[in-house]
Amino acid sequence: MTTNKITELLNIKYPIIQGGMVWVSGAKLAAAVSNAGGLGLIGAGSMKPPLLKEHIMKAQTLTSKPFGINVPLLYEGSLDQINCALDLGVTIFFTSAGSPSKVTKMLKDKGATVIHVTSSPALALKCQDAGVDAVVAEGFEAGGHNGRDELTTMVLIPQVREKISIPLIAAGGFSTGRSIHAALILGADAVQMGTRFLMTKESSAHDNFKQYALKATFQSTKLLMKKTVPVRLLENIFSKEIEEIEASFIKDELKEKIISHLGKSRAKHGMLEGNIEQGELEIGQIISHIKSIPSVEEVMQEIILDFNQSLARSFIKF
Prior knowledge:
It is a single chain. By secondary structure, the chain is α/β, with parallel strands linked by helices. It has two domains: 5-201, Aldolase class I (TIM Barrel); 207-286, no CATH class. The chain is built from 14 helices and eleven strands. Strand 2, helix 3 (49-62) and strand 3 (67-72) form a beta-alpha-beta unit. The radius of gyration is 19 Å and the shape is globular.
C-alpha cells in the first residue's frame, strides 16, 4: 500500500493502529503490532507509572519500530503516566476520556505527536481546535468506554470527515481488510482495532476471557451504564446484574448504586484474571465475527490479503 497522512505521521507501513485497551495492551502486544507494520499502543489506563515504565522499557527491547501509549485523561494519575512515558522517550500519545486541551500543548511543545479519541463530529472539531495531530472517531460498535450519542461508525466517519481537515482514524467494528477498505472509502485515513488484537496470542487478556469471547453471537454485547460512564460489555452474570440495577433505580440513585456494585478492579478480574462470571468484560460488537486466536503477524497478513482482494473487487462501474 502507498503511504498516506497517517502512515507518514506515525512512520508506519500500514494504516492500522492497535487499540490501547486496559489490562490487555501490554508491551508484548504493542511490540508485535509495530513489528508487523502497524502501530502498537500500550494501554496506560490500567498502569501506575512503575508498571508503565516496565512495559515501555520491555517494548523498546522487543521492537525498533514506533509505538505509543494510550492515556485516558479522566484518571487522576494521567499526567504522571504522560511524564513517565516522556522521560523514556515515547513520542506518540493517544489520549481519550477527557479534554485534549489539558495536555496537547504541553506534549506538542515537547515534540510529541498527539491523537485524541472522540465519538462525535462536534467533539472531533474541538479536538482539532485544541491542536491535536489527528483524531480517532470511535463508533457505537466499539468495546470499552463509548460515546453517549450512539453514532455508528458508518454514520460517524463521513460526518467527522466533513468537519475536520486533520487526519482521521476510524474505530469501532473493524477486524478485516474489507472493513478497512470501507473505512478509507468513507473518508478515514486509517483504522484503530481493539477487539481483533485482544483476540491474539500476544494480548494480555486471560485465556478464559478469550475462549469465552469466541462463543459470542451478534447479541452477546451491550452498551451499559449509559447514564454514568457508557461501556460496551460482553454478556455475563455481572453485565446482567448491571442491567437489573439500571432498570430498578431512578436517576438520582443509579450512579451511586452502579459505583457500589462495580467495586474495585472489576475489569482486572474479568479481562486479566479470567473471572468470566463476575468480571467486567469490555469488548466490541465485532467479537461475534471473530472465531480464532492467531498471532498478531497472522492477523496482519490475513488483513492485508483481504484488503487487496476487496480492492480488486471494487472496480465496478454503475
